From TrEMBL:
Its cofactor is pyridoxal 5'-phosphate. Coiled coil: none annotated. This is Kynurenine--oxoglutarate transaminase 1 isoform X1. The gene is KYAT1. Residues 58-434 form the Aminotransferase class I/classII large domain. It comes from Geotrypetes seraphini. InterPro entries: Aminotransferase_I/II_large, Kynurenine-oxoglutarate_AT, PyrdxlP-dep_Trfase, PyrdxlP-dep_Trfase_major, PyrdxlP-dep_Trfase_small.
Amino acid sequence: MLVKIGPSCRFLRVATEDSCRLFQKVRMSQHIQAQRLEGIDKNIWVEFVNLAAKYMTVNLGQGFPDFSPPSFVKEAFIRAVSGEKPMLNQYTRAFGHPPLVKILAEFYGKLLGHDLDPHCNVLVTVGAYEALFCTFQALVDEGDEVIIIEPFFDCYEPMVKMAGGTAVFIPLRPKGDPLFSGNWQLDPSELENKVTARTKAIVVNTPNNPLGKVFKREELKVISDLCVKHNLFCFSDEVYEWLVYDGREHVRIASLPGMWDRSITIASAGKSFSATGWKVGWALGPDHLLKHLRTVHQNSVYHCATAAQEAVSYMFEKELALFGTPDSYFVQLPQELKQKRDRLAQCLTEVGMEPIIPEGSYFMMADISRFKTSVPPSNDADEPYDYNFVKWMMKHKRLAAIPVSAFYSTPHKKTYEHLIRFCFAKEDKTLEAAEEILQRWNYQQPRAP
Ligand code: IK2
């Protein structure tokens, strides 16, 4: 029992015999947490972000740029809070600040080849994370199955579970050279075999985190045909939509025939403008689906920061005017990141941590098999090898990455525990520091006989 004493707000913990007995009785008669939370209490980001901070690592772990967003992005925020419009400090429309939904409707209307109504087809959320949460909560029911393509952004599985559904997994498998992300493909008949009478939706993430695969139009067509044939929804997470390299095309599955009416498309200002801390995202879709996301949103988050939304609306106005030109940030950012990708790939190749070259996103997976001999095994037999490896690397080499098995379902984790993920959206000096660590480690590590 907690007893508050005095105006200084100090608390005195008083455990009386009665309160202890009452607590034990309640504990024995019921679960403390809701059953839908069972087995999802661990979170890769919470755990590894903490470790990276604890060991003060060179951080190629979590996916955020350590360089500044461009000045027009910072100026947009300053303008939004500078006082010209005092109402920008107050609540705004629940489902998206009017100037933002208007410009997003115009911008994505062109990309999707579909007229968007700002008020019915756009929902602004607290990052893409909240858009995903609203999607699963609104459209997945008790007993529904949701097909998830592996590797997958880790929160899809717990979000399906919290909605009462069951995740059904299908892996991308390398066909040809596994060191090129584009060669990791779905088997169309294996995918169709996953569809049952209970299947409600397929989750697509292109460009994919952590693999960096950019799904080709033909690959998306296989998925969209299946959605149409079996009357399924498609939840398409496209937060890395502008980060595609080597002339690849980002195709929006909602733009394929028969897909608009059954798709939710999710994107993120944080990823698109190198400002992940702003947490502005959105979901796009037909009103008959989006209205249910709005119900979840209005009863949970209600709306996201007004000034941040206003700022993002200025940024999109600029991007719309510059669309496709060399001055567009959506053109400049991938050019800058491609150089960083190539630099990290070269270093990893040289030290023998074979990289899988991503076609998109700002992540690169690498094979750690050659470095295994220098890392002692874990004391925990259940811990996937890559978790042990990355933890050891953070502690002893002061370099952070993310274990790739975190992006796989439990039965498949073992198959991919020889891989770790690096984020290359980092300052050149950060990449240089990582290179030095890897080169020194490679030089020192025992050679195979
Ligand atoms: N969807 C995907 C595929 C993401 O990668 C993210 C952000 N992930 O960043 C953590 C990492 O992988 O290192 C999101 C959704 C969430 O985006 P937002 O930041 O807009 O909420």
